[in-house]
Amino acid sequence: MHPDVQSLLAVQQDDLEIYALEARLSALGPRLAALENERARAAQELERARKAVESDEARHREATHKLETHRQLVERSQRQYESVTSPREANAAMTQLEQTKRMADDSERDATQILGRIGEMRHHVAQLESALADVEHRQAEARSVLDAERAEIEGQVAQARAKRDRTAQGVPRPMLAKYDKVRSRRRAETLFPLRGPSCSACDTAIPTQRRAVMAASGTIEMCEGCGALLYARE
Fold it and tell me: CA-CA distance, 42 to 39, in Å (whole number)?
């Protein structure tokens, strides 16, 4: 086997190791995404509950203001009833007083119901806050493990790339450029030996003249069948 081809095969081996490390690094993504999704669901549920509390608190303020207004109407109707002198005016004032009392009672009932609902909702918010804290506490160790694993793999990738750069220095530039162009598309094993008269990757027959040139000069040629690069073992 030509020495240049041997050097290029060493580069390919380095590239395959880098691809394997990058695949391990990519595999961490779904694990981290699962943690993020779990926390996001808990946080979103908590946020919705908090907004619901804020909405009902606003409704309670409105109901309280309405109740105060109706109470003032009751007091005014009461004074008006107490000031009338004729039976006709007394009947009209009594009707108005009873109406304003019903309005005040309705407002008070609404305000009380909303306040009770707010209490229940605040309790629910407290439970969701506790649940979110539990998720974050439980995930802390998992995230720490993932961070450590990522840092370790990134260090290995950096070392592997540095090794690859050193190995690539022994390959002629034109040959390396040809290999890199094909490798960047395949991102997998790129360089294959001839197997008899054919490509060992796809069994496409290679013309005799091309095989002879490869064997004599140590050049690499692209397979017209699968696009892999081929070399002659002998």
Answer: 5
Q: Give the tokens for residue 101.
A: 């009392």
Taking 90 as the threshold, does the pLDDT of residue 234 lie above it?
no
Rg (CA), the chain: 40
- What is the arithmetic mean of pLDDT over 139-158? 95
- Side by side, which strands form the sheet with 191-195? 198-199, 191-195, 229-231, 221-222
Domain range summary for the chain, segments of one domain joined by + = 14-170, 172-234
pLDDT at 199: 94
Q: Is 193 exposed, middle or buried (0-12, 13-18, 19+ CB in 10 A)?
A: middle
The token pair that represents 23 in the structure block: 């695949």
CB 14 within 8 A of CB 189: no
What is the model's pLDDT at position 50?
A: 96
Query: What is the model's pTM?
Result: 0.67
**Burial class of residue 144 (count of CB atoms within 10 Å of its CB; 0-12, 13-18, 19+):** exposed
For domain 14-170, the question of CATH label 1.10.287.1490 is answered with yes
Strands 191-195 and 198-199: antiparallel
Instruction: Kindly indicate the confidence band of residue 187, based on its pLDDT and cuts at 50, 70 and 90.
Output: confident
